[in-house]
Write a structure and sequence with these properties.
six-stranded mixed sheet; elongated; 335 residues; single chain; 11% strand; alpha+beta
């Protein structure tokens, strides 16, 4: 693998020799002072040019930087759909293990590419940019959630629980695991990010996809998180679901919001694992025998078998799993 000094020299010399390239910006983990350094970090680069069109689908560009193992052109792909098409990117993985993500962008958009707090101007032929502050991950720090964002996260997490339970009971492994590992885990990671922010005084970044969560959430929570990653055994998936429920509930009861502060009171203030109706239903389903294939009637696919969870039903409001039990309404005052 080529060294960083060799790569930086190649990147800059290529830009210097090309009169169209007026500036070079690097961002990402290589300029993040808080990121752990390793040789596999990408070189995330922007070449600012007067016209992007000559650099679209230009087969001469990738070999300039090395022997290509695999090339991706995201602006030419159907999925995911490309953006506004003002820029054009080459994602290049080289045979020696080095990777460059190079974007050609128009000069008039220059200011957009230094809004990222992890930005460094490597080359500025026209003195276009003022001095930038030192790069930092301050633009990626978690922030205190609003009460609405917190409520929505909790509601979505508990709403999805029965989807996993029904999928497991029916023997639909791929459906159950998709709900667990995609939709539910997204909500869990969002809650853990807020918990991480609270534990670190909102001054540290959890990293992309939570890769730096461990020191912030502590070993106990990290051990629980590890247990949510199960193999294909249905019983292990049930246990992963229950563990995910426990971890989410414990994190949620500790996270404050902009309108809600966690107070320490005597006695339980949230649903316990045995009280929570969603978890109680899931545990019952886990021990309920599944009908055999011969016993199952042939019917149309249920409405809830789509990819997107249904919303709006009053049947399962997961918020009561973390909030204090509601008091009965007061009687109206006598006339």
């Amino acid at each position: 693998m080529r060294s960083e000094s060799i790569m930086m020299d190649l990147i800059l010399q290529t830009a210097i020799k090309n009169p169209d390239v007026r500036a070079v910006i690097m961002n990402g983990s290589r300029v993040n002072p808080n990121a752990r350094k390793d040789p596999f970090q990408d070189y995330d680069l922007v070449y600012l040019v007067p016209e992007v069109e000559p650099y679209r689908r230009n087969s001469a560009i990738p070999p300039t930087f090395g022997e290509i193992m695999i090339l991706q052109l995201p602006d030419d792909m159907i999925e995911p759909p490309p953006g506004d098409q003002r820029s054009y990117a080459y994602l290049m993985q080289f045979m020696d293990g080095t990777r460059i993500d190079l974007t050609f962008a128009p000069l008039e958009d220059a200011s957009l590419y230094v809004e990222d707090t992890l930005s460094v101007v490597l080359l500025d032929k026209d003195n276009r940019f003022p001095p930038l502050p030192p790069p930092s991950d301050r633009g990626y720090l978690p922030s205190l959630p609003t009460a609405k964002a917190f409520d929505d996260c909790c509601n979505e997490f508990w709403w999805l629980n029965p989807y996993v339970a029904k999928g497991l009971w029916r023997g639909e492994l791929t459906y159950a695991r998709y709900m667990l590992d995609t939709h539910m885990r997204d909500m869990l990671m969002k809650m853990l990010t807020w918990y991480f922010g609270m534990q670190t005084c909102w001054e540290k970044s959890p990293g992309k996809l939570g890769k730096y969560l461990r020191p912030g959430i502590g070993e106990e929570f990290w051990h629980l998180l590890e247990q949510t990653y199960a193999d294909a055994d249905p019983e292990h998936t049930w246990q992963a679901l229950f563990t995910m429920d426990e971890l989410f509930r414990r994190a949620a009861t500790a996270v404050p919001t902009r309108r809600r502060r966690v107070r320490r009171r005597s006695g339980p203030s949230v649903w316990s694992a045995s009280e929570c109706p969603v978890v109680r239903c899931n545990r019952a389903a886990a021990h309920r025998p599944r009908p055999s294939a011969s016993d199952r009637p042939t019917v149309a696919a249920p409405r809830d078998s789509g990819h997107s969870p249904a919303r709006g039903s009053p049947i399962s409001d997961g918020r009561k799993c973390w909030r204090k039990k509601a008091r009965p309404p007061r009687a109206p005052p006598a006339d």
